[in-house]
Design a protein that fits this description.
Layout lengths: L15 H12 L4 H8 L3 H12 L5 H29 L2 H17 L1 H4 L15 H15 L4 H15 L1
Helix pairs in contact: 1-2, 1-4, 3-4, 4-5, 7-8
Protein name: Transposase
């Protein structure tokens, strides 16, 4: 008698109900972690499903497609709120537009982050000591992983000051 062999491991928990809950939660603007909580699935499990979907395995590929679509829906909703705020100009619409912009900057930051200019003093208004102090502070930020290098630079700068 020939027995049917079962694949190793237990069957996946991924089903239409979980996919629908995740879709609705993400489309509403929530995070993946919150969507996993709402669906009753551990976040690591959901990340595994998404990774398997990226490899092309079903039903995970469909799940990945649905989560990406939900993210696009949430982004489009935020964009509509911004356009409505600009068009209507009422305090309520403008407030919603600001919130939507804040959401886009944080959730979809690669596309929506606004680089804000840093407030700095005009270098010509600084004394030599203040200018050197500002330069040292910037160098420390740039070479935080190499403290010995910054110490050498500081010593040379102080030596040329005398």
């Amino acid at each position: 008698m020939h027995e049917r062999k079962m694949p190793p491991g237990r069957p996946t928990m991924l089903n239409k109900r979980i996919t629908a809950i995740v879709y609705k939660t993400i489309a509403g603007g929530s995070t993946m972690r919150h969507a996993a909580d709402m669906a009753g699935v551990h976040y690591d499990t959901m990340k595994l499903w998404l990774r398997r979907g990226a490899e092309g395995a079903e039903p995970y590929l469909s799940f990945l497609t649905q989560t990406r679509k939900a993210e696009a829906v949430a982004e489009a909703r935020a964009q509509r709120a911004i356009r409505a705020g600009i068009k209507r100009g009422t305090p309520e619409a403008v407030g919603r537009a600001k919130v939507a912009g804040w959401w886009l900057e944080r959730r979809r930051w690669r596309d929506w982050w606004l680089a804000r200019p840093r407030r700095t003093r005009d270098p010509s208004s600084l004394s030599d000591a203040e200018l050197l102090e500002a330069l040292v502070a910037e160098l420390r930020k740039m070479t935080a992983k190499e403290p010995a290098l910054i110490d050498q630079v500081i010593q040379r700068l102080k030596g040329s000051e005398a």
